[in-house]
Design goal:
Elements (H helix, E strand, L loop, with lengths): L1 H9 L3 H13 L1 H10 L4 H21 L2 H9 L3 H4 L3 H46 L5 H11 L2 H15 L25 H9 L2 H17 L6 H24 L1
């Protein structure tokens, strides 16, 4: 009887899952220590998918897709070489898929990103620090560390609800990145760098640093966790800037 009760008390419950979601913001170290012992990821992932899909659906209803696609296409030298009829045909094809693609991206963006990042950091911390983490632990840490994105989506929903149709720039709905304050005529390398300096994403990286350090504090010191998390992110930013330059 005691073993059954102990097992039941250790299993995740809706109340515990909700407390972990809140705990990421109020007591992150304690929350991630708990996740290291009893990994969970359904609650934060489901919350973020719902909010992201809602924001994408609302954004799709506010965008003037024809003007937005034409504006984006005009920056492509190949598009300028087309005849007016060919331009209209190309834009019409993209309009048919634009809203659906945007909504699908809203659903899949967070799960795919969380999966990729959890695998990369799992390998990095196990190889560099010998952290001996399991995938479930890494995925649980990553999905909970992504929760600031849920706040970003809530803010996006509020801003979009106040916008009129056609008065939406999907790349700068909420001015939380350096790119939002740069001119469109700025060099592509500068824009690529500016898009990486995003408030909620830096918050996520900070939580990842705390999470992986708390998962195995004996082998992963805070300084090492910071170096791995922000170091790999720095390499990604450099790759984006180089790609933009090319």
């Amino acid at each position: 009887m005691s073993r059954t009760s102990e097992t039941e008390s250790d299993s995740p419950t809706p109340v515990r899952s909700l407390s972990r979601v809140v705990g990421v913001f109020t007591s992150p170290t304690k929350t991630f220590q708990c996740l290291a012992k009893h990994a969970s990821w359904i609650a934060p992932l489901l919350l973020m998918v719902i909010l992201s899909a809602s924001a994408s659906a609302l954004m799709g209803s506010k965008i003037n897709w024809r003007e937005y696609i034409r504006h984006r296409a005009e920056g492509n030298p190949r598009f300028s070489q087309l005849s007016d009829e060919q331009k209209d045909d190309a834009i019409a094809k993209q309009i048919r898929f634009g809203p659906g693609f945007s909504f699908a991206a809203g659903i899949l963006r967070v799960p795919i990103a969380a999966l990729i990042i959890s695998v990369i950091y799992l390998a990095a911390f196990n190889l560099v620090c010998g952290a001996e983490l399991r995938f479930a632990t890494s995925f649980g840490i990553t999905t909970h560390a992504f929760l600031p994105l849920a706040l970003g989506n809530i803010l996006t929903l509020i801003v979009l609800s106040l916008k009129a149709y056609g008065d939406v720039d999907p790349e700068n709905i909420v001015a939380t990145s350096l790119k939002a304050f740069l001119s469109e005529s700025a060099p592509k390398t500068v824009l690529a760098f500016g898009s990486s300096l995003e408030l909620f994403w830096i918050w996520c990286l900070t939580l990842l640093t705390v999470g992986f350090s708390a998962a195995n504090p004996k082998k992963v010191k805070p300084s090492a966790s910071f170096g791995i998390v922000f170091g790999l992110w720095g390499l990604w930013v450099v790759a984006k800037v180089v790609w933009a330059a090319l």
